């Protein structure tokens, strides 16, 4: 095969592998965020009817809202549980097999959701949301790891970022399927909640045909031949010695070391700032309020002055906006770098949060202000997609070695899901209590996040793990290095004094 043909085969294999893994992976996260928006009224009515039939009790509005908030937000607690079990599962079964086994949670959740109406049980919807959350929590951790370990260095950022592209695509897909003309109507809402099984089936049918992560095969399993075969299939040509040597170097550096747990990372000074960085950026991704907009999109647009009959179509625009931004980020990330995209995204989000606050404050005085408010929501989501949405998931792959990577993803995922749960619970209350100033806290978080990235995150584009580690070494051992330098200088000066005395 000619070099051009090999390159084409390599690109096709990699693209198909990414599409297969993501269809039942991060796409599920975006899809399950979006499908809960349209059927909100119908599920709330179902909850009320169930209480009336069982206990002859009519719920107050605030009680229905509370049950609905639990149904929506319990997805995040499921995701938190999924993030915690993702590390041990990837170590035990490998990246690919873990993604395949993860569909057990999805299929069980879909079955409970589709039968909940016939069983007259809103509790089944809650359990289904927990199980789907576990599925999303596992895939959000394992998929970027699988992609980052399978892609060549020059495409590592773009391939890892495709996880965010599929998350955004899942949001758009969920919004389209959720419109009243398709599955978002009163008779069909249970089928909408169970429709997440279809991408899972696609993954189960296609992913077994693709190779396991080459790094996992060599470093974790010690199978050099399987690693070379996997690399050959993914690259479409003979394995380059430089790429294999890099994996062998990482294997030698971690030889005899078992996979590390989260507590070991938390107490290891040599990875302290890598861990702080991952925890801060993962938390900021949710605390900026972007994903909460999808949970409560109808409410947000209603507050912005959009008529009720047009809201379901406008919400599709929010997902399309993030999807477009993620594709653009995918094209730019290997040119501009991670640090630039991340910091730039948060700075733009800060600006739009300020403009949105001004627009909400004057919407009753100026006729065109509601349109500016709506535009701010779109630009806020666009800015999020341009940086934080994609770059956040790449960082644990690039900042940690093979033994620490699963635990790093567990910690990052836990922070992300816990903060999503908190935001899902408090977002409606922020909207009602702070009114036109509801985006002020989000703007402050975006500004602080941009400052943190600018001060503490080095650029990782195209760098090996050892080069990135050496940059963080200055932060991790700053005081100690200065002390050692001071001791060396003192010893040198004492040597000079002794020498002059002897002379």
TrEMBL record:
SUPFAM superfamilies: MFS general substrate transporter (SSF103473). Residues 18-461 form the Major facilitator superfamily (MFS) profile domain. Its main location: membrane. One of its GO terms (biological process) is dehydroascorbic acid transport. Gene3D superfamilies: MFS general substrate transporter like domains (1.20.1250.20). Keywords: Cell membrane, Membrane, Signal, Sugar transport, Transmembrane, Transmembrane helix, Transport. Coiled coil: none annotated. The chain crosses the membrane at residues 66-87, 99-119, 125-146, 158-177, 189-210, 275-299, 311-333, 340-362, 368-395, 407-427, 439-457. It holds the Pfam family Sugar_tr. Residues 1-24 form the signal peptide. It is found in: Cell membrane, Sarcolemma; Cell membrane. It is a multi-pass membrane protein. InterPro entries: GLUT, MFS_dom, MFS_sugar_transport-like, MFS_trans_sf, Sugar/inositol_transpt, Sugar_transporter_CS. GO terms for molecular function: D-glucose transmembrane transporter activity; fructose transmembrane transporter activity. It catalyses: D-fructose(out) = D-fructose(in). One of its GO terms (cellular component) is sarcolemma. Belongs to the major facilitator superfamily. Sugar transporter (TC 2.A.1.1) family. Glucose transporter subfamily. This is Solute carrier family 2, facilitated glucose transporter member 5.
């Amino acid at each position: 095969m000619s070099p051009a043909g090999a390159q084409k085969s390599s690109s096709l294999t990699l693209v198909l592998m990414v599409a297969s893994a993501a269809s039942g992976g991060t796409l599920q996260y975006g899809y399950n965020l979006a499908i809960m928006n349209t059927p909100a009224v119908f599920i709330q009515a179902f909850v009320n009817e169930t209480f009336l039939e069982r206990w002859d009790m009519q719920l107050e509005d605030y009680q229905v809202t509370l049950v609905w908030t639990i149904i929506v937000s319990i997805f995040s607690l499921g995701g938190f549980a999924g993030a915690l079990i993702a590390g041990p599962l990837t170590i035990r079964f490998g990246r690919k097999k873990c993604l395949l086994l993860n569909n057990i949670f999805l299929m069980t959740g879909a079955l409970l959701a589709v039968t909940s109406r016939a069983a007259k049980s809103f509790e089944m919807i809650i359990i289904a949301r927990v199980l789907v959350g576990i599925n999303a929590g596992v895939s959000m951790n394992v998929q970027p790891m699988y992609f980052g370990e399978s892609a060549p260095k020059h495409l590592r950022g773009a391939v890892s970022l495709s996880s965010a592209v599929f998350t955004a695509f899942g949001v758009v897909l969920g919004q389209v399927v959720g419109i009243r003309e398709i599955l978002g109507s009163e008779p069909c809402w249970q089928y909408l909640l169970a429709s997440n099984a279809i991408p899972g089936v696609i993954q189960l049918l296609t992913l077994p045909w693709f190779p396991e992560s080459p790094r996992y095969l060599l470093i974790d399993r010690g199978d050099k031949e399987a690693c070379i075969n996997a690399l050959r299939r993914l690259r479409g040509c003979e394995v380059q010695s430089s790429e294999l040597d890099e994996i062998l170097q990482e294997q030698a550096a971690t030889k005899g070391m078992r996979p590390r747990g989260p507590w070991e990372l938390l107490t290891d000074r040599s990875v302290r700032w890598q861990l702080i960085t991952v925890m801060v950026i993962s938390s900021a991704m949710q605390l900026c309020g972007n994903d909460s907009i999808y949970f409560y999109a109808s409410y947000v647009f209603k507050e912005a002055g959009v008529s009720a009959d047009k809201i379901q179509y406008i919400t599709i625009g929010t997902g399309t906006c993030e999807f477009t931004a993620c594709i653009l980020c995918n094209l730019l990330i290997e040119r501009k770098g991670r640090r630039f995209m991340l910091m730039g995204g948060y700075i733009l989000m800060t600006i739009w949060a300020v403009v949105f606050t001004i627009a909400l404050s004057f919407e009753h005085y100026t006729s065109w202000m509601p349109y500016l408010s709506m535009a701010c929501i779109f630009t806020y989501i666009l800015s999020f997609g341009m940086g934080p949405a994609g770059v956040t998931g790449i960082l644990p792959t690039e900042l940690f070695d093979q033994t620490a990577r699963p635990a790093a993803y567990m910690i990052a995922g836990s922070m992300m899901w816990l903060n999503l749960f908190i935001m899902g619970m408090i977002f409606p209350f922020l909207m009602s209590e702070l009114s036109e100033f509801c985006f002020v806290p989000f703007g402050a978080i975006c500004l602080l996040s941009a400052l943190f990235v600018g001060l503490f995150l080095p650029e990782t584009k195209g760098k090996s793990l050892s080069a990135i580690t050496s940059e963080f070494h200055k932060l991790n051992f700053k005081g100690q290095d200065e002390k050692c330098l001071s001791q060396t200088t003192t010893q040198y000066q004492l040597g000079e004094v002794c020498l002059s005395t002897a002379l």
